[in-house]
Specification:
Layout: E1 7-12, E2 20-23, E3 38-47, E4 53-62, E5 67-71, E6 86-90, H1 111-134
Antiparallel strand pairs: 1-2, 1-3, 3-4, 5-6
Length: 135
């Protein structure tokens, strides 16, 4: 009996034991809840029916824990004095129902939005003044 399909072995990070050994083609559901939060590497080793091997590495980050949002301080900012920080942490829920409480972080309106609003209002006032002079 000869095999007509390739086989793949899936490894997470430097583990020597594969998390799955599959015949291709296959759809595989990777349950990230079993992997700690942080950066990881999925190593896929393929083996053809003739015995040749190929390897693919995919870097990914697991973030199953609560999401943390901070406004008022960015990574590598140079600061002095007292900082006013807005910090929010919220969970994604069970992903079968939408979690509303705490799922949105309030944010200040960016300055460019204010500039657009002022420009639009100025244009609207100008348009009203010039169009009322015509009639």
């Amino acid at each position: 009996m000869t095999k007509d399909s390739s086989k793949v072995f899936l490894f997470i990070d430097d583990d020597l034991t594969p998390i799955a050994e599959l015949d291709t083609p296959i759809v595989f559901d990777l349950d990230t809840k079993k992997i700690p939060d942080g950066e990881h590497i999925l190593k896929i080793v393929s083996q053809s029916p003739s015995g040749k091997e190929g390897v693919k590495y995919i870097h990914f980050t697991v973030a199953n824990g609560p999401s943390v949002k901070v406004e008022g301080l960015k990574n590598k900012d140079v600061v002095d004095g007292t900082l006013s920080l807005m910090i929010n942490a919220y969970d994604k829920g069970n992903q079968k129902s939408f979690l509303i409480n705490g799922s949105e972080t309030p944010q200040t309106v960016p300055f460019w939005i204010w500039i657009l609003i002022i420009l639009f209002v100025g244009w609207a006032v100008y348009y009203e003044i010039t169009s009322s002079n015509i009639g």
